[in-house]
Amino acid sequence: MTEGQAGQEAACDLCRGGELFDLFGHDREGHRVTFALARERISIIDQLKSMSEEELLKVRGIGAVGLSLIRERLKEGGGLNETLHQRQVQ
Ligand SMILES: [Zn+2]
Fold first, then answer.
1. How many domains does the chain have?
2. pLDDT per residue over 22-31, tens digit each?
3. Residue 86 Cα, ligand 1 centroid: separation in angstroms?
4. d(CA 30, CA 20)
5. CA of 38 to the centre of ligand 1 (A)
6. Residue 89 C-alpha to ligand 1 middle, in angstroms?
7. 78 C-alpha vs ligand 1 centroid, how far in Å?
8. What would the pLDDT profile of 43-65 be if each residue is shown by its tens digit?
9. How far apart are CA 55 and CA 59, in angstroms?
């Protein structure tokens, strides 16, 4: 609990928070990706992990920029990129 930037993490005007919002962050790009996923009923990291890159590219509003953000974040979250790769190869 730090003072100063009041409620930067806890309170967001744009979303109610959640696993994916925490993963992608509350900046413009993070929200864009997370809301795009939410429209596809993807709201938890496990669902995201089970998707291939091809499937993610089909999600409206994600695109190449969103995909690279997803890849990056999942990698930071523990090498989940491997799963995406395997699925893509099939
Ligand atoms: Zn937010």
1. 1
2. 999 999 999 9
3. 31
4. 9
5. 13
6. 34
7. 23
8. 999 999 999 999 999 999 999 99
9. 7
